[in-house]
Specification:
Layout: H1 6-34, H2 39-51, E1 54-55, H3 56-62, H4 67-79, E2 83-87, E3 95-99, H5 101-122, H6 127-142
Antiparallel strand pairs: 1-3, 2-3
Length: 147
């Protein structure tokens, strides 16, 4: 591939995007680990903290995980006493996930640490660069698949 080709540019840009994402995620993820949470567990707790009680399917969609994967994540959070499930009386298949008081305490503390870590990471960019990066990521993320 020639360095000036569209294919080279696309692959080079993709590689930089993925490396930057993995690097930032690794550093921010340490704050989640310090709180005893995986990235998925943090995502579930954060969603419940900021969006309120949700059915398991909506939690999965919110944090971009499969419904099968989210079941295991919520099972583990429930074992730790951080969330609880309530089944609908009308439809036993429908299950709402709620934060417990312990879960609220854990996620509020962890979120503050993670938020500070994200702000620190993003300080590498100016405000304008952060705005531009956000717009570009949104554009790329919303693009319909071509294959």
């Amino acid at each position: 591939m020639k360095p000036e080709s569209s294919s080279y540019r696309s692959l080079n840009t993709y590689t930089k995007l993925m490396r930057a994402s993995e690097s930032v995620t690794s550093r921010v993820g340490r704050k989640m680990s310090d709180a005893g949470l995986t990235i998925s567990q943090f995502g579930v707790l954060e969603a419940l903290l900021h969006k309120g009680d949700m059915c398991q399917r909506d939690v999965a969609a919110k944090i971009l995980k499969s419904t099968g994967n989210i079941t295991m994540v919520i099972d583990n959070l429930e074992k730790q006493g951080l969330v609880k499930r309530e089944r609908s009386l009308e439809d036993r298949r429908y299950c709402t996930v709620l934060l417990t008081e312990k879960g609220r305490t854990v996620i509020e503390a962890a979120f503050a640490e993670v938020e500070a870590a994200i702000v620190k990471e993003m300080d590498a960019l100016t405000d304008d660069e952060q705005e531009l990066l956000g717009k570009l990521c949104k554009k790329l993320g919303l693009r319909e698949g071509s294959g």
